[in-house]
Amino acid sequence: MGLFDKHLAYAQAYEAIRNAGADPFNVKFEQVLSPTEGIIDGRRTILLGSHNYLGLTFDRSVIEAASAALHDSGAGTTGSRIANGNFDGHRKLERELARFYGRKHAMVFTTGYQANLGMLSTLVGRGDHLILDADSHASIYDASRLGMAEVIRFRHNDPEDLYKRLKRLKDVPGERLIVVEGIYSMLGDVAPLKEMVAIKREMGAYLLVDEAHSMGVLGEKGRGLAEVVGVEEDVDFVVGTFSKSLAGIGGFCVSNLDGFEVMRVTCRPYMFTASLPPATVASTTAALHRMESDPGLRQRVMNNAQRLFDGLNAMGFVTGPTCNPIVAIALPDQPVAIGVWNALMQAGVYMNLALPPATPDARPLLRASVSAAHSDEQIDAVLAMFKQVGETFGLIDSDVKRAATA
Ligand code: PMP
To answer: Where in the sequence is the domain holding 195, given as residue range(s)?
Structure first.
């Protein structure tokens, strides 16, 4: 027996995927030309597979802020904030995030993954209850393993099931923390937050919303799903990431709850890792300002999402239930999904391929992440590629067949 023998089934499945064409899990950008275009395999390719929702990766103010911070404060912090010191930029970014969300406290983490890992493993402990949506992101599941709370899962986006499970805990001691996401990353669907807030209130639970995919995208101010639904006061903790709308890397949590600051000396994924480099802190702060000062970016990303979502549905593709910048296309089985992904790459569009068990309902998915920076022409070009590939694979009717049956 070798160490890697237990991974044999995965190794074989991965080998089969690679043999079918390009490697969807190791795509190499020879060049990134803009937020929406790159060179892959020598071909100019439309990038529709990164979460560059507001297209700010090449924004002039963002790049200039990063560049100035790099020159002023150096390449890295070379340590954690509790052991090796805070740079001024970290505190400033925390103040800006707290102001943006209208909360008293904000804590910045080195990734969004670590923000979930840290918050969920520290807020609830032994004797408490962590109540998770079944389709939660891996960082939420991993957090549940790091912490000591009892983990209870409820059916995806099902308030009734959530209610039932909380009710079973009625006379059980311990705190309850419910965790949901603003926009779910696989299907682009949103949590039924109003119903969940009512349940949280009735049951005396705390609520944490991971707005990783909804920050900058949903809400008049871009504060996410809780803003749209009008329940921000009932959300005790908002977690988010800098790696999507804010075009960098890092994560955060904001809250109004007194006592929050103790997390700085109790939250291990905050304490025992190096803090974000000055350039990233500065670029993130600049991106936050850019996001706030240009609501047109939100309008554009949603318009682009609608154009793609409507176009795909009109052709007969099966998308997720709600139109959001994550547009998921369900495919019948794995070989077709891999074939379609490869054909689209050949045609000149890069998207994400998500395979079971990482997907809900064990369905393979192609996922597009639309950006405000995509042009109408790029979205239309993608739709034309989908039409051709969809017909080739028999996923949609050709125009000829449609006309004949009309
Ligand atoms: N939460 C959710 C819902 C996510 O989808 C992701 C990443 N896709 C994360 C957290 C982790 O964020 P990051 O990639 O910034 O670590």
So the answer is: 59-293
The residue count for the chain: 406
CATH number (domain holding residue 353): 3.90.1150.10
Q: Which of 262, 293, 324 is the last residue of a domain?
A: 293
Structure token digits, residue 13? 């499945």
CB atoms within 10 A of CB 322: 15
pLDDT above 70: residue 317: yes
Whether the CB-CB separation of 286 and 278 falls below 8 Å is answered with: no
Report, as an integer, the average pLDDT of 114-130.
98
Residue 401 has pLDDT above 90, yes or no: no
Distance CA 316, CA 396 (A): 6
Ligand 1 atom showing the smallest separation from residue 185 Cα? 5
- Taking only the tens place, the pLDDT of each residue in 128-159 is 999 999 999 999 999 999 999 999 999 999 99
113 lines ligand 1 (CB under 6 A): yes
Bond before 357 cis per omega within 30 degrees: yes
Among 344, 329, 328, 341, smallest CA distance to 17 is for 341
Distance 171 CA to ligand 1 centre (A): 34
Could you tell me the two tokens for 209? 């919303």
What domain count does the chain have? Answer: 2
85-103 per-position pLDDT tens digit: 889 999 999 999 999 999 9
Residues 174, 302, single domain; the answer is: no
Q: Is 49 in the pocket of ligand 1 (CB under 6 A)?
A: no
Residue 403's pLDDT band, with cuts at 50, 70 and 90, is very low
Predicted pLDDT at 361: 83
Quote the mean pLDDT of the chain. Answer: 96
Q: How far apart are CA 156 and CA 91, in angstroms?
A: 36
The finding on whether 244 has its CB within 6 A of some atom of ligand 1 is: no
Q: Say yes or no: CB of residue 260 within 6 Å of ligand 1.
A: no
Which residue CA neighbors atom 5 of ligand 1 most closely? Answer: 185
Distance CA 166, CA 124 (A): 15
Task: Please give the Cα distance from 51 to 213 (Å, whole number).
Answer: 8
- Answer whether 284 contacts ligand 1 (Cβ < 6 A): no
Q: Is 338 helix (H, G, I), strand (E, B) or coil?
A: helix
